[in-house]
Design brief:
By secondary structure, the chain is of the alpha+beta class. The chain contains 8 helices and 18 strands. The two termini are about 30 Å apart.
Length: about 350
């Protein structure tokens, strides 16, 4: 779908990069939950542009307004409308690119699909669209935390060839991750990653990376046996994020190089519940959560819009040299951290509501 995600907890997003506003309509949030803008704003602050020298210089406060579905600070059970105004728009930056599809961007594919496209900022393919996901995800996170004690923490696992190294999945926190603008959670590697991003930015280029995420305190039993497997829905969610190019859960691709005897997760007693001694499964077996932490990783390509001269072609096929204008991240992964957390929250919220509905 172009705008709707979820089954029982449904999120519809709207808006483009340089239009008046972006936002979301959240349908399916349970009634009676306390909710106000201050519950949503912290995640938007972590996602917003201009928060450090490592991100785009576009200046946006990204302040959210709740339009509907909440009265007296309590959810009504009706659709919740969320809106964030675009304040620092510069559509004129894209005039030169109106006739030149940017290499590896969505300009050409949108034009082919619709016969028209947003002329500035990439429209719906822009990372501005993720504001709506993060705002909606914050509502899901609040419910998950209050009702089930769920904790969702993402961090930058790599930038280019630099890797953050192993982390303690049981203990890593957002406070730890946010101690450095890179958000890698490893103080030793944070500055090296920041230096790499700064070097790439100084050359008008960009660099990719990966974001890892852990979801703790989830009950066993979430996910469906066939097409709506938990990991399949997470993959759907993560690969819908702009610039994402890969998803793996648990041991991921490295597990394909292991023997079954080494890869299997033996069952053990964990204080009255059955758990596993290892977690190569990433908390999911047969498409259903097993009560262990869910752990996955998402790969992001280098941002496509770079100011370096690139030989390419106009829409009419004639050759040209493009030096893209505009304000863009040299590396998307530090700001992708709250987006990954929010998309995970949307998936888990929907599955928990399905499970609760099934038990009625």
């Amino acid at each position: 779908m172009s705008s709707v995600f979820g089954t029982l907890f449904r999120v519809s997003t709207f808006g483009e990069s340089h239009c008046a506003a972006v936002g979301a309509v959240v349908d399916g949030a349970p009634a009676g939950m306390r909710l106000c803008e201050s519950d949503i704003q912290p995640q938007l602050d972590r996602r917003r542009p201009g928060q450090s020298a490592l991100s785009t210089p576009r200046e946006e406060e990204d302040l959210v307004t709740i339009l509907s579905g909440v009265e007296g600070g309590v959810t009504l059970g009706t659709p919740i409308g969320l809106m964030v105004y675009n304040r620092d728009q510069r559509p004129g930056d894209y005039q030169e690119m109106s006739q030149v599809p940017r290499p590896s961007h969505a300009d050409y594919t949108y034009q082919v699909k619709y016969g028209v496209r947003a002329s500035s900022g990439g429209g719906r393919s822009s990372a501005r669209e993720t504001i709506a996901r993060v705002a909606a995800g914050a509502i899901a996170e609040k419910y998950l935390a209050e009702r089930h004690g769920v904790e969702i923490v993402a961090w930058v696992d790599s930038v280019g060839a630099l890797e953050a190294g192993a982390v303690d999945l049981e203990r890593i926190t957002r406070q730890q991750v946010d101690q450095h603008p890179v958000r890698c959670g490893n103080p030793t590697m944070s500055q090296a990653m920041a230096d790499l991003i700064t070097q790439v930015k100084s050359r008008d280029d960009s660099v990719g990376g990966t974001v890892s995420c852990v979801c703790r305190n989830l009950p066993a039993g979430l996910g469906e046996p066939a097409f709506d497997k938990l990991e399949a829905l997470l993959a759907h969610a993560m690969l819908s994020i702009p610039a994402s190019k890969g998803f793996e859960i648990g041991s991921g691709f490295s597990g394909s190089r292991m023997l079954g005897s080494a890869h299997n997760d033996p069952f053990v007693d964990k204080g009255g519940r059955l758990g596993t001694a290892t977690n190569y499964s990433g908390g999911v077996q047969g498409g259903i959560s097993n009560g262990e932490p869910i752990y996955f990783r998402v790969a992001f390509k280098p941002p496509a819009t770079v100011a370096l001269p690139q030989k390419t072609a106009r829409f009419d096929g004639s050759e040209t040299i493009l030096e893209a204008k505009g304000r863009h991240d040299p590396c998307i992964v530090p700001r992708a951290v709250p987006v990954v957390e929010s998309m995970a929250a949307l998936v888990l919220m929907d599955l928990l509501l399905r499970q609760e509905y099934r038990k009625r």
